[in-house]
Fold this sequence. Notes:
Elements: H1 20-23, E1 29-30, E2 34-38, E3 50-51, E4 56-62, E5 76-81, E6 84-85, E7 93-96, E8 99-102, E9 117-123, E10 132-139, E11 144-149, E12 159-170, E13 177-189, E14 199-202, H2 221-227, E15 233-236, E16 239-241, E17 246-247, E18 258-262, E19 268-271, E20 273-275, E21 280-283, E22 286-290, E23 299-301, E24 304-305, E25 307-308, H3 314-317, E26 341-345, E27 350-354, E28 366-369, E29 375-376, E30 381-386, E31 389-391, E32 406-407, E33 411-416, E34 419-421, E35 426-430, E36 436-438, E37 441-443, E38 448-452, E39 471-474, E40 477-479, E41 493-497, E42 504-507, E43 510-512, E44 517-522, E45 528-531, E46 534-536, E47 540-545, E48 557-560, E49 563-565, E50 570-575, E51 580-583, E52 586-588, E53 592-597, E54 609-610, E55 613-615, E56 618-620, E57 624-629, E58 634-635, E59 638-640, E60 643-645, E61 655-658, E62 666-668, H4 671-678, E63 685-687, E64 691-693, E65 698-701
Parallel strand pairs: 1-13, 3-13, 14-15, 15-18, 16-19, 17-29, 18-30, 19-31, 25-26, 29-32, 30-33, 31-34, 32-35, 33-36, 34-37, 35-38, 36-39, 37-40, 38-41, 39-42, 40-43, 41-44, 42-45, 43-46, 44-47, 45-48, 46-49, 47-50, 48-51, 49-52, 50-53, 51-55, 52-56, 53-57, 54-58, 55-59, 56-60, 57-61, 60-63
Antiparallel strand pairs: 2-4, 4-9, 5-6, 5-12, 7-8, 10-11, 12-13, 20-28, 21-22, 22-27, 23-24, 23-28, 26-27, 61-62, 64-65
Amino acid sequence: MPRRFGCAILLLAAVCGNDPARAADTAPALIPLTVEFSLDGKQYQAQPPTVPHAGKFWVRASWKGFQRPDDARQPSLALLIGTADFASADNGRQRRQGAPAYIQRPEVPYVARTEESVVFAVDLGPRKEGVLGRINKWDSAQGKFVDAPLPAIEALPGGVHLFTVQVYYRAVDGGETMGLGKELFAVTVENAPNEPETVIYVAPDGDDANPGTAEKPLATLRKALADAKPGTRVTLKAGTYREGDIAMTRGGDVGKPLVIEGEKAGQVFLKGSQVVTGWKLHAEGVWKIENWSVNSQQLFADGLPLQQIGVQNRWHRQKLWADHVCLPPVGKGLEDLQPGSFYYDATGKTLYCMLADKGDPNGRLMEASVKDCVLHGQGASHVTLRNLSFLHNNMTGNENRNGGLVAVGKSNWTIENCEFSYADFAGLGMTGENHIVRRCRIFNNGAVGVDINGSDAAHNWRRYQRPTQNILLEELVVTGNNYRKFYDQWHAGGMKCVPCNRGVTVRRCSVTDNYGAGIWFDGGLGDIVIEDNLVADNQTGIFYEIASPAEGDPFGALIRNNRVVNHPKQGIYISASSQAIVVNNTCFQNRWDIVLHGMPRQEFGGCKLTGNRVRDNIVCGKVADIILFMGQDASDNIVDGNFYITNDSKAAPRFGVASVKTYEDRVYTDLGKLFVAEKLEAHGLSGDPQWVAPAEYDFRLKSGSPAAGKGWQPKGDGSDVPARRPAK
């Protein structure tokens, strides 16, 4: 039977009677929203729709089962497009061509205090001059907002648009938020009918002197981009393109994105490498290419990388703390060549290799990385990439690491159904804002799969209180990254987001088998959402480090409904950070399942571990289930209502109260004694959760489970990461 202490609570409830363990919890309660979509207002689905130009769609948001705070007003509603309010009559403004303008708003009925759902009827069409807005003008004589005419406005242009639904409760207008629900979604709006579209075709056997038609395509993407204008679609036919270092001088425009697409997914490969032929025998099993002028950081034989030998870039030399270097070198010189490796002699400008079977490389496809990147977005905005595979680059050979195979441009990039693999450092590099990356595979890159930098050159690439980035990453497969074995505590793994990231959502992704952290936000701000992901078999699972929310952020990080499994270090690590909410995650067989520590840290004037919430998770750590630092600069961290597995494989909970020097200053194996001594886990439970198949990472709960309502909750609408772990 599960053990329970104190009174029972509902999932994510804001209050629990006169419970003293809850009294200090002033963080807003999370409202679990269910958001569905319709094109006719009758039939609803979980996936956001594609909407006809000037059309309508309906958004149904429900928060049934949420325990409304007793003294809260009726729920306040917001529908945001980007960061501009799309719903309220008196605040519905965004900037159009540098000037504020009212935008078309959805009709929202009055919502009573007891309501638990709302339907937004969203009209994306044009509006004539003089249409009455609802309470959109202040009447000083009456002392209230009244209906007034609105200016004319065009239909929302075609393209992909990010929306956010928010539902929140306050006791008084402008007062402290007591409950908050937030869901981000992307809607595709079709182009206007009969709108002319320019298509430029490119093919490996084309000619840049051709007109770029399907029958007479160009030969290079570089030439196509030079000819493209906003609204152009560049279509690449099947094959391999070895251009690289393509710098975009222009992008698209609002409603007229510049589209770069493969004609068929999985058949268009853009590489920053060069085929290497003419190998000469140097010694037994050792072959060479003379007069090779590029310090190539990668050499591939039939698509697989060889091990680099020697100190070949600044990262091999740059020392970190405890005498680590960023990229520990293997061997020193030609004499250290071994089967399956290569060495570049910069003095003699000679490239050497030894294949795994010591065979002749002239009979193999040998590719050496030669270009910094494949595609650099520079200042370009409103760009769409789809159905493309990007491989191979040589950024670290030029003492650089900023960017990736693709360096995303300034704003409004949509990347879908693409692959990024075998970069020398990062697969996908991102800066800027209002980007969407979805349904992509990002795998086997040199250091990290996704690299997001929230700062810019104007701020010396350092942390500052930046506006929200409004970036969405969803339904990605991120696996096998850091194959070059960069030091995993520096900049390595599945996703490394540093510094200054704000307003980034990572959801429904499979992040597995990366040598480093799976998902890592470092030195950033708030409004970070990490939800519904499978994070397994990395070094650390989810890492939120030296970060704190900016003014106006509802939280630091919201880490909810993830499966975090089998990490030799921390499963979920909140390090020297504030206002992280860790709720309804299933953590299994990590060395330490959930850790709040990383203290002390002096960055940004001194980091604090404050206002964090750890609730309603299921934990089963190898060494410890939960670790909480309780020393200097740590306060108001609440751990309560979690379920600790005790069954045949685990005898008792293991909760560690940590000091600066250790994770286990005091260890508790009894939840009752933990509450008496530390006033933690008033509602903690222990027992067997009765999972369906934990060995296959299927953590659904069987009927009658004592852990019902806790841990990972499958949605059952087809939007979950598959219950079974992806095959390696």
